[in-house]
Specification:
Layout: E1 12-15, E2 18-21, E3 26-31, H1 40-54, E4 58-64, E5 71-74, E6 77-83, H2 88-105, E7 111-115, H3 117-124, E8 134-137, H4 157-169, E9 172-175, H5 180-187, E10 194-196, H6 213-216, E11 224-229, H7 238-249, E12 255-260, H8 266-275, E13 282-286, H9 290-299, E14 302-305, H10 314-321, E15 326-329, H11 334-337, E16 343-346, H12 351-362, H13 365-382, H14 385-400
Parallel strand pairs: 3-4, 3-7, 4-6, 7-8, 8-9, 9-10, 11-12, 11-14, 12-13, 14-15, 15-16
Antiparallel strand pairs: 1-2, 5-6
Helix pairs in contact: 1-14, 3-4, 7-12, 10-13
């Protein structure tokens, strides 16, 4: 498109409240979850978008409606709350709204970046009608499936077909770790299009001592704190930690097990704790704010996540950044993230092995410290936001050449 402006002067495209600069890479992102922060994926999306803006990119994010204004500017990111939250009717409205937006603004978009293959990826795939290259990033639930844990959108046949179609139309499919490659292929991705980009976190934002959650939960310095932080969902198997706690507490150690997070398993887990007589040693913290999260992570001695499957959980990276040794399962991303100098990996559902791993770390303070130090060093070397952003920039530069208008 020819520019009417003088040479060397960027042309501004004014579209309602959205401003696009012709001489910068203009990234349109779409996510089917609230923005900026709800869970791990949302944190990553926010950090990526914020970092791109700092580098001179123009980033606009389409996301579900909330109680906030329909258009807002967040850290230089344009956030358009155009989408409905849930339901078939909402999904159809989202497609229509996305198509209208693309029809009006497609000339001002260089790259479409969808977060989650479904439903965001399917909506983003319509960009191909306008010659805009599409990148899809999968975080787990969009391509992974577990009937046992009632996990994964592809358990729905229609969603599975639309996911397959979105992945076929995408130019690049990003996954978070090598263990997700096979799952991506099963979901419909072309192996030649798959790229692995590890999550990245910003260690500079770790600020502790801002809340009174440690006092509220009554965690004295003499107790060893074993922390679970995440959604209370069957695929994460928090019940295995509770059952392992019974065996750990038999050795007489002053250990407290803190379960932080909310989810559909909470009532079941509370009943299990009461049944096993663990009410004095297993503490449910409920949903925690960002500030409370960092206070818990800097107080914890051991971090446990006995999941059946994961993408690449941000909570584990955050725990590692705080110098906490990790106990997780020997499946999914964990063998790629954690070696024997950083923690202990156990088979999923193996409560005996989980209890032994916890006891080993609870009883050995020096081992906890050495493993924690290696975890923090690994985050600094491999899992920074800067490295994540640089990897995405490389992909953006390659796919931007594929734009056909």
């Amino acid at each position: 498109m020819k520019s009417p402006s003088k040479p060397g002067k960027p042309t501004l495209f004014l579209c309602n409240d959205v401003v696009f600069h012709k001489n910068t890479n203009r990234i349109l992102m779409v996510t089917s979850t609230f923005f900026p922060v709800i869970g791990g994926a949302e944190v990553l999306i926010y950090e990526l978008a914020r970092s791109l803006v700092k580098k001179g990119y123009k980033v606009t994010i389409i996301c579900p409606k909330s109680q906030n204004s329909a258009v807002k500017d967040l850290a230089g990111i344009k956030v358009l709350s155009l989408l409905e939250q849930k339901g078939k009717a909402g999904f159809l409205k989202n497609i229509c709204r996305t198509l209208v937006f693309l029809f009006m603004h497609h000339r001002e978009i260089d790259i479409m970046h969808a977060h989650f293959a479904f439903p965001s990826g399917f909506m983003a795939a319509f960009c191909r009608l306008f010659g805009i290259p599409v990148i899809i990033t999968s975080y787990g639930s969009d391509i992974q499936v577990s009937a046992e844990a009632s996990y994964g959108v592809r358990r729905n046949k229609i969603a599975a077909v639309l996911t397959w179609l979105a992945l076929k139309l995408a130019n690049v499919h990003v996954v978070l770790c090598r263990s997700m490659i096979e799952e991506a292929i099963h979901a419909g991705s072309d192996p030649k299009k798959i790229r692995v980009i590890h999550d990245g976190i910003n260690s500079d934002e770790i600020v502790a001592g801002q809340t009174r959650i440690i006092e509220r939960l009554e965690l004295p310095p003499s107790d060893v704190v074993v922390l679970y932080l995440g959604r209370l969902h069957p695929k994460k198997r928090p019940e295995d930690l509770i059952k392992a706690a019974v065996k750990v507490l038999k050795i007489g150690q002053k250990a407290k097990f803190v379960i932080a997070g909310k989810g559909e398993e909470k009532a079941k887990l509370e009943r299990l704790v009461k049944k096993l007589g663990l009410t004095n040693n297993v503490i449910f913290a409920g949903f925690v704010s960002d500030a409370e999260k960092w206070d818990l992570l800097t107080r914890a001695d051991v971090f446990v996540l006995p999941s059946l499957m994961e993408g690449q959980p941000v909570t584990v990276l955050e725990a590692m950044a705080c110098g906490i040794p990790i106990i997780a399962t020997n499946r999914g991303p964990f063998p790629e993230m954690i070696d024997s100098s950083m923690g202990v990996l156990v088979p999923p559902r193996d409560q005996e092995a989980l209890a032994e791993a916890i006891m080993r770390l609870v009883m050995d303070r020096e081992l906890r410290h050495s493993m924690g130090a290696k975890c923090a060093k690994t985050v600094e070397e491999r899992y920074t936001v800067e490295r994540m952003v640089e990897n995405y920039e490389t992909i953006y530069k390659v796919v931007s050449s594929k734009k056909t208008h």
